[in-house]
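[Primary structure, fold]
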Amino acid sequence: MTKITPGATIGILGGGQLARMLALSSAQLGLKTHIFSPFADDPAFDVSTNRTHADFLDESALNDFANSVDIITYEFENVPARTAQVLESLRPVRPNPKVLALTQDRLIEKQFIRDLGAQTAEFYDVTDITSLKKTVNIIGCPSILKTRRMGYDGKGQAKITDQRDLEKLYMTFNGAACILEGFVNFSKEISVVAARSLDGLFSAYDICENIHENHILSTTLVPATIKDETAQGAIDIARKIAEAADYVGIFAVEIFVVGDHEALIVNEIAPRVHNSGHWTLGGAVTSQFEQHIRAIAGWPLGSTQRLGAKVSMQNLIGKDCEQWKELLSSEASLHLYGKKESRPGRKMGHVTKIHL
């Protein structure tokens, strides 16, 4: 139950835009940060107090890193299990490494969600081409084949529309452990961005409505246009997840809304600050980044109150960031991530607009 005070140092695993915004929020609260990343040109290095450029499995570097910080967190969930084990033996790691193990494997994650009484798409473990053919026969088409690990922004997954080319499709996954999910014909995709404090208090932001293009989040609208009881149901699911996982920090639950009756089908859990929560940076009293730092530091959670009648957030993907001059002249708040190269599909920044 270690709590820290201003002047302490937070270690952050990963050095991308999420770590960058966590570091900036830490500085606002009088806290220092130490970024650990295997990538020398990560943008978070530009704004952190200290930096370590080393492989996540370099145990000597991990020991030095842990001894230089007071608590440790991470910006993404695919931290190697061995890394989390080494660090947990030396310093408090929040959220706890058990959450990493839970969310790194889609099969385990889906089973966990089901055990809590929430709905998910129909799913089956896929271990070889025989089990793929068998489960496609059960679920039918369309269905979605996903790697159990390391998938994001549409990577590591494929939609199956017929059974004629299953062997060829399966070969593209190179023998990776997979999960087959039933296709969900949803009307909206929403997310709950919430926090749980070291003392077990829970606080959620307004529900986000998310619009994707090419499997990448394009726009988030807040509040989502759903029934009040649907919103409350989504928050209740998030609360159950946080309590069952003994979670500390910010997390997001991605949920499909289905039909006029607005059934809730949980897609996945993100154990970290989340792209759909970027609207809170300038669009809420306390940003998700500050809220995460407050939670892991053992401090009181901040207000999640939305500023304005509505808030919208748009990602700047690839060359979208080249419009920065025009965006500065608009009524939107511009955030650029300091990445040195724009590439198709790469998140370069975002803009937030408050609608009064």
Q: What stands out?
A: The CA atoms of residues 8 and 339 lie 27 Å apart. The mean pLDDT is 95. Residues 188-355 form a domain with the D-amino Acid Aminotransferase; Chain A, domain 1 fold (CATH 3.30.470.20). Residues 228-244 form the longest helix (17 residues).
